[in-house]
Design goal:
Growth Hormone, Chain: A; mainly alpha
Length: about 450
Amino acid sequence: MDLTSRDAVLTDVSPIVAKARRRLIPFLFLLYIVAYLDRINVGFAALQMNRALGFSATVYSFGAGIFFLSYALFEVPSNVILARIGARRWIARIMISWGLVSSAMMFVRGPIGFYSLRFLLGAAEAGFFPGIVFYLTRWFPSGERARTIAWFMTAVLTAGVIGSPISGALLSLHGLGLAGWQWLFLLEGLPAIALGFVVLRMLPERPADARWLSAEEKSALAARLDEETRQTSAGVVTTGQALTNGRVWLLSIMHFMTIPIALYGIGFWLPQMIKTASRGSDFTVGVLTAIPYAAGAIAMVIAGRHSDRTGERRWHVATAALVVAVGLALAALSTGSHGATGATGAASSIAAFSIAMAGVASMMGPFWALASSRVSGVGAAASIALINSVGNTGGFVGPYLLGAINDATHSFTIGLLTIAAILLGGGSLALIIREHDR
């Protein structure tokens, strides 16, 4: 296909892509809100649970992070199964099983039970996020993916904005023999179970299955996506190629050193760091915790849109990583042993974490647009899963580093600076990744 014809195809499918985005993204957005909330609500539960069960910072951080080890272990096989049996059925299975495990967290009585259920939660949820990214490659051309993924992933930040005050409020529930942290796990696990059944009825597998597209629209979108698949025929198209491809592994390492290590390092400890700085109630901490997530949501959409408009990915990721490092360095100053407390301490901590979260969020759309280029078919499912699984071990390292270093030094300062240094290294790796031809 020559350039003129290719541009014509792009122009023809733009309204169709916009329609698909309006139909699919709000629902997927809701699913990811529930997923992320169930993943990090342990951070709010810890405000009561750690004291009630006698967990040290190291015990808590290991249990919070072990989720990502099982998640990484089962990620690739889960996404390969999804590619073979279909996203609709497999995503429904994932949601129902993780909702059951998440609610079961209310029964934790000691470290072993805590570790076991967090490990099972990671195994249950494995494949959800990369499965959705793979699903989006079946609907959206590569030039539309950064903004599409950014809109979808704003659910991570929205979960923080909406879920933080809700989680803080749920901690005040006490009754029927359950403490607030137990009610938190029970009530926030139930929506995933219900939505799993809704997925079976509402999620069309491919454009051809969408009743809200006309036959002409289905044909035009399929032709555009098929043309991209033919153009990537020399890239990664099988599971074997995904597991042995140097570019895929470089992206995996870069992911580990950037998004998860910062997102979950901040996410699992943010309520406790803000509690320390503000000396506020659990509900007040929930409200204040929402502010950095709101800043991240705004930055994510702007960065994703700009990346698609310019066609550039690498510098967007590298620059955002630098912003995260600066934010974490400022947070280290505000949360250190000499940092202010009360209103002044809370304001400086929230400002620093807002900068850091804006940087983390700005990486997401451009990074996954870069990671999902030059791959197709089962190879795309395996590549995306491998990148996400290796990267998400950073979700174990980030929280554990902060917890272990805090136990040793009674301060978050060194842990935050360590993560900032890792971010700088990960951002520099982005500049040696070869981008997909524009």
